[in-house]
Amino acid sequence: MENKRTCLYEKHVALGALISPFGGFDMPIQYSSIIDEHNSVRQHCGVFDVSHMGEVRITGPDAEKYVNHIFTNDITAAPVGKIFYGMMCYPNGGTVDDLLVYCMGANDYFLVINAANIDKDVAWMQEHVEGFDIKLDHCSEYYGQIAVQGPEAETVVEEVLRLQCKELTFYTAKTIDTDGEQVIVSRTGYTGEDGFEIYGSHTFIQQQWDKLMESGRCKPCGLGCRDTLRFEVGLPLYGDELSADISPIMAGLGMFCKLDKPEFIGKEALVRQKSEGVAQRIVGIELEGKAIPRHGYAVLKDGVKVGEVTTGYNSISTGKSVCMALVDTAVASLGTPLEVQIRKKTFPGHVVKKRFYDKHYKK
Questions:
Q1: DSSP secondary-structure letter at 117?
Q2: What is the mean pLDDT of residues 291-310?
Q3: What dihedral angle (degrees, nearest 10) is formed by the CA atoms of 127, 132, 134, 138?
Q4: d(CA 183, CA 202)
Q5: What phi and psi, each to the nearest 5 degrees, are found at residue 198?
Q6: Residue 362: pLDDT band by 50, 70, 90 thresholds?
Q7: SS3 for 132?
């Protein structure tokens, strides 16, 4: 099956981007270099094509009740414009996906899901609509999306795109009527920096991309640095730090699971995991020296395998060799000495916090 392409694909090719498959799409991995693009976002402003993400609109009399049933966070009586991060879980506590839920109005919610999981997620949502008076509108084909990220993102969105956004606080959104359509602007991102995500028709998103590129005030950024940026601030990636086998509790994301709200799918399993503990947990590991731990490499304790790396890099912002890893809970305490096997050699390290670099969100 051929990979899909976003509405900005031709623009990436014209800019000479390195294109590679990701989540069923042909996506730009880098333009200049991952380090250059990473540093642009940390210090100035970078723009990402995130049109591959999926969008689902849930409306109707039972919309709030339904979303609360499939989602770990609690959206009860959410103010319009509020955004929630959380997961959909299987009954055994494993993760279907992590997602954002935007409250667009009374019983009107906009769900943003991961590209690789779109078909699976929509099928899962449809499987659980019975008994709820809702309309589920799968609108991924309509929306394009860009993320403008970095300390200069606010001035760039206001001055280059002429979209008023400075009043938005972190994890809030608004709709703007422009060019005969309603677009969504939210103060969100996946980089650990201040920034905005903008959703609109393909034509609108193409126009915004062109304005940003012509301005010379931000760099186009690929998925390569999107991964290094999110990793440094401890944000999980589905398929690495969350999966059908890795629950939110195992991933250290229990704060996004409101176990005191009424029944939701997976609640019983998560309550049990919280009270009884889990066999394995996601931790941070810092290695001595410059060897780079990669996804799938074995983590050892005194020569015995106790887990494996989920994501690892030589951190661009800190210069340290670090990774996130799923390890046995017995060795998950901060400071525990561990080794990572890289090819035929083992390299010493120790357990550290998963946030290797501090986030810089605008509160």
A1: G
A2: 97
A3: -10
A4: 11
A5: -125, 125
A6: confident
A7: coil
Return the beta strands (E) in the chain as ranges: 18-22, 25-30, 46-49, 54-59, 83-89, 95-105, 108-113, 135-138, 143-149, 173-178, 181-186, 195-201, 219-221, 280-287, 298-301, 304-314, 321-328, 337-342, 345-352
Percentage with pLDDT > 70 across the chain: 100
Share of the chain residues as helix, strand and coil, in percent rounded to the nearest 5: 25, 35, 40
Q: Per-residue pLDDT for 363 more than 90?
A: no
C-alpha distances (whole Å) from 330 to each of 186, 277, 338, 356 are 40, 11, 12, 22
**Cβ–Cβ under 8 Å, residues 235 and 324:** no
CA atoms within 13 A on the CB side of 21: 7
> What is the average per-residue pLDDT within 283-302?
96
CA dist 36 and 233 (Å) reads: 18
Compute CA distances 28 → 126, 216, 222, whole Å: 31, 19, 5
Q: How many CB atoms lie within 10 A of CB 75?
A: 21
Q: Does the reported pTM lie above 0.90?
A: yes
d(CA 79, CA 270): 27
